[in-house]
Specification:
Layout: H1 5-18, H2 37-47, H3 52-65, H4 69-72, H5 77-84, H6 90-108, H7 116-121, H8 127-138, H9 147-155, H10 167-174, H11 180-193
This protein binds a DNA duplex (11 and 11 nucleotides) through residues 44-45, 47-51, 54, 85-93, 96, 123-129, 145, 147, 150-151, 154, 159, 167, 197-199.
DNA sequence: AAAACGGGGGC
DNA sequence: GCCCCAGTTTT
């Protein structure tokens, strides 16, 4: 089954009125480390193919040791591996963390560039990571298809089109003429708390009646 | 286009 | 056990 766009709009409206706090920026107090462009960037790297909770715990441990590119370079690759374990691809990511730190210092005086073009030049940062960094670190009003958003789009049937568009293009079209940033956050929060990857809480979902594929 | 990177979790 | 996991680089 697939959902129509007007149903999608209705779903967004219901979620918005039921959980107005979801489209607000994440509170700093929900994290145990400073949310700087650098820590945000590294968190995004750590999050690939890894559960949110594991990523959060790993980030907390890592940023307690080093929350700037300069401090990061004082750590050995092995100690970073140990610290971030058990995130997926932890060896490759430890290497990537060091490379990115080195690159930021050499090219941008230790700062994360507020530019998609520049972010994409960094090894280890692709289109999705760049979008998430721009949104979270710099508040840019763009859509960022993270794993939650992707999963929900798929669940609602928006990714089973004959002419395959990227999930990024599809979401952009669905959220056109709206405040993309807030609505994007709304979907992420929905995916984290109710429409979860494991054991989705359909029984408390306010839009269950509109869902094409409830797992209830 | 497909493999590789690496664990966790569902069934 | 086996299968999945939608991020990026490498082959």
């Amino acid at each position: 089954m697939e959902m129509k766009k007007d149903t999608f709009d209705k779903v967004i409206a219901i979620l918005h009125s039921r959980y107005p706090e979801w489209d607000a920026p994440a509170k700093k107090s929900t994290y145990d480390y400073d949310r700087t462009p650098f820590t945000i960037t590294i968190s995004v790297i750590l999050s690939f193919r890894t559960k949110d909770e594991v990523t959060q715990e790993a980030g907390k441990r890592l940023f307690a040791l080093a929350d700037t590119p300069e401090k990061m370079l004082t750590l050995s690759k092995e100690s970073i591996e140990k610290t971030i374990y058990p995130v997926g691809f932890y060896r490759k990511k430890a290497q990537s963390v060091l490379e990115i730190s080195r690159y930021l210092i050499d090219r941008f005086d230790g700062k994360v560039p507020n530019s998609e073009k520049e972010l994409l030049k960094i090894k280890g940062i692709g289109p999705k990571a760049a979008a998430i960094i721009l949104e979270r670190a710099f508040g840019r009003n763009i859509v960022a298809v993270d794993t939650h958003v992707h999963r929900i789009l798929n669940l609602w049937g928006f990714l089973n089109t004959d002419t395959p568009q990227s999930s990024y293009e599809i979401l952009k079209a669905l959220l056109d003429d709206k405040e993309k940033r807030g609505l994007n956050r709304l979907l992420v929060a929905f995916g984290q708390t109710i429409c979860r990857p494991q054991r989705p809480r359909c029984e408390v979902c306010p839009v269950q009646a509109l869902c094409p594929n409830p797992s209830i």
